[in-house]
Amino acid sequence: MPELPEVETVKRQLQKSLIHKRIKGVLVYMDKMVKVGPGKISNVKIGSKKFTSEFIRLLRGRKIISLDRRAKFLIIKLSGGMSLMIHLRMSGQLIFLDRKSQNNPLLLSLAKTAIKQTLPGKHTHVEFIFTEGSKLFYNDTRQFGHIRLVDAKEFQEVLKQSDLGPEPLTIGLAQFEKLIANHGEKRAKDFLLNQNIIAGIGNIYADESLFFAKIRPTRKMRTLSKPEIKALHGAIKKILNKAIRLGGSSIEYFLMTNGSAGKYSNEHVVYGKGGKPCPNCGQQLRSLKIGSRTTIFCAVCQV
Predict the structure, then answer these.
(1) Domain membership flag for residue 278
(2) 0.70 cut: is pTM over it?
(3) Are residues 81 and 126 in the same domain?
(4) CB 4 within 8 A of CB 170
(5) pLDDT digits (tens, 9 = 90+) for 220-232
(6) Is the backbone of residue 200 left (phi > 0), alpha (psi -120 to 50) or beta?
(7) pLDDT > 90: what percent of the chain?
(8) Of these four, 108, 238, 273, 274, which has the most CB atoms within 10 Å of its CB?
(9) Which sequence positions are flagged as catalytic?
């Protein structure tokens, strides 16, 4: 979390706000959240004043050209052939505020104890300031996310290192069948969560897709019939597209760029509902761990 629909939502919203804006300056409040150039980034990051200074220097004066997404990466393309590659990980947020809105307090978490705050706040780690006065804030409570600045060659190197599978929104049925044939021993849930096989799906949308396709998450992919493969392929696309239309799922930290919550959380059928009745048959939804991730399914409807 955030998964593909949440990152796509952020991308589409920022497209409306950022295109053609010029960066006046950047404030970095936590060095370990930014990096210049390629190279793997571990969850245990170490900050560097050198990287921070270079990050700020290279960004100053650049213009926002376009926004894109690859898997769970948000990509902001800049003048001069450079790009920001942003990974929100578990709790990253990008909040855009025009000059008139910057003194308005926002609720930046769905936790019951959360209170409204103005930005920059306690968990704001990077602040982008644009020449006409608007600002983009990167908040990250758990600090697992990162912002990387790369040139065109380094951009391709990072994607190669990430070894990302195809995009689930555009993959055709024939290619999907080929992936299954190449990874037949994997369990259905493991298959969907593996970013090297198919990129962008996380725990929420894996559980939801498997439920709608009526496939048990522990099934080996090689046991799926052609109708089941077609059903899963269709369920993934339908659910991801609906989630994007509704602004993604807000589970504690994810928010749209204006600070409001995504509405797909209200559409979850099985995710986070272990022990509750199945909406189809009424039997209690079961919960188990698959690859360290909590998985919810119906033992009656999913076979």
Answers:
(1) yes
(2) yes
(3) yes
(4) no
(5) 999 999 999 999 9
(6) left
(7) 88
(8) 108
(9) 2-3, 72, 293
